[in-house]
Amino acid sequence: MKKYILTLVLALFAFATQAQSGKNFLDQSYIEVTGVAFKEVTPDEIYLNVRIDEKDNKGKESLEQLERKMLKKLESLGINLDDQVTLNDLASNFQFYFLKRTDVFATKAYTVKVSTGKKAGEVIGELAELGISNVTLDRVEYSDEETLKMEVKALAVKNAKTKAAALAGALDQQVGKAIHIQEFDSPRMYRADAMEIKVRGVGGLNKQEAPEIAFDKIRVDATVQVKFLMD
Questions:
Q1: Any signal peptide, and if so, which residues (predicted)?
Q2: Which of 59, 94, 119, 211 has the highest CB neighbour number within 10 Å of its CB?
């Protein structure tokens, strides 16, 4: 019984302390503002889908020959075959195309990762020279995404303080320390939809100049709500 009474007393004490603390918070003068910020960065991870297909050269070369030529060319462009080239799901991408009852052509799909639009252009142009023209853009990413999100959130808080100071200054007051920070949403990443890149042949390509490829920047937005004490 004594233990129960002691527990009840402690609970009431904690509730009273919390209530008093809340009252003190409401009694203080504060200003509440919303801060927004964004940053745009150039993607540094570009993923290209490359499909090699026997039917592209009407069976003049086997799939294995096309594959060896492609990998050798990628390596000559400075592409690390272990880190930057991935064979897609073999079970779903090794398919057979029946053009006639007696004609069977095979295909394989790879993903090639590069870091710049210039390198992507080099890959597309050089593969087209080999007769491998089925290249599409899979997606673009930014390698240090989490750091970027934190930078944008911090910038949003700074913008909130600037806004609060301007509003308080209109009343001949100053803002004090922040007493509450709330993030409305996690920073949002905006990427352009993956567009299709196709090289239909080498006729329109200058061997001395890789095709120019530009990618939309990735944008990160952040919104925060901050309460500052008023002096």
A1: 1-19
A2: 119
Which residues, 6 or more positions from 190, have their beta carbon under 8 angstroms from its beta carbon?
Answer: 218, 219, 220, 221
Query: Are the C-beta atoms of 197 and 213 separated by less than 8 Å?
Result: yes
Give Cα separations from 137 to 42, 78, 113, 196 (angstroms).
16, 20, 10, 6
CA 30 – CA 169 distance, rounded (Å): 13
* Cα–Cα nearest to 107, from 168, 48, 66: 66
Integer Cα distance of 43 and 218 in angstroms: 6
Q: Which domains does the chain have, with CATH numbers?
A: 43-142+192-209 (3.30.70)
Task: Using the predicted structure, report yes or no on whether residue 91 has a pLDDT greater than 90.
Answer: no
Q: Could you tell me what percent of the chain has a pLDDT over 70?
A: 69
Q: What is the mean pLDDT of residues 122-151?
A: 90
Q: Are 222 and 36 in contact (CB under 8 A)?
A: yes
pLDDT score of 197 more than 50: no
CA-atom Rg of the chain in angstroms: 30
Tell me the C-alpha distance between 59 and 62, whole Å.
6
Q: What are the tokens at 79?
A: 């592409």
Helices 63-76 and 117-129 cross at an angle (nearest 10°) of 140
The per-residue pLDDT for range 46-61, each reduced to its tens digit, is: 999 998 877 666 667 7
Quote the strand ranges of 142-195, DSSP E. 175-183, 188-190
pLDDT tens column, 94-113: 444 444 444 555 778 999 99
